[in-house]
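Example 234, ligand 2'-deoxycytidine-5'-monophosphate.
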Amino acid sequence: MIMNKQKKIVIAIDGHSSSGKSTMAKDLARELGYVYIDTGAMYRAVTLYALRKGLIRDGKIDEAALEAALPDIHISFQFNAEAGRPDTYLNGEKVEREIRGMEVSDWVSPIAALGFVRRAMVEKQQAMGKEKGIVMDGRDIGTAVFPDAELKFFVTASPEVRAQRRLDELQAKGETVSYDEVLENVKKRDYIDSTRAESPLRQAPDALVLDNSHMTLAAQKAWLMRQVQLKMNN
Ligand code: DC
């Protein structure tokens, strides 16, 4: 691909869970030599911390204790060449696998809806993107974290297609869950993510929309690279 790689920009990718955002972000970052930040992994790491410390009990989050613990939660990323993407670390421990399980998935939306959690994460994310040359995926990147991002994508697919993708991923990791369970989790997260008071999942007015329900990965990648090329050579 011929493009002007001198100009470093911020690329924001938002969209629904399991819409393929992270695959797109990872591909783009590799292609451009950019840093890829998976902000969902950050909210997942906070959730894992809360679960491990017993801050979620009897179906309730101990918000005061979690807020007090925030300064003790250190999240970082280290590139894993084999996986071709960064691994997530929580207080120095690699937790990439732990944060993708069903228990964390069940609790991450309510945790990500907490204002004090969001403010802390957004601050970290803005610091990570200060030098540009970054592809960041999440729910509020183009609207709240980097409203001035040079390129914004909003990715979606039907809940059924997304549930099937998520089920395939979980089964590949040996988790035994049913399609119905995963579909319910996908719909529940969509609902919480889009209706929460703090930075709800919303399409930025200047985002390019991609519904990939019926698109192959190759077609999606070609479309994506074309958009980037147009932007970079502009
Ligand atoms: O992308 P994901 O499924 O790993 O995200 C996990 C949860 O975190 C999801 O319920 C939405 C939330 N999230 C968010 O609120 N803001 C972000 N920037 C990224 C994720």
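Summary: The mean pLDDT is 92.
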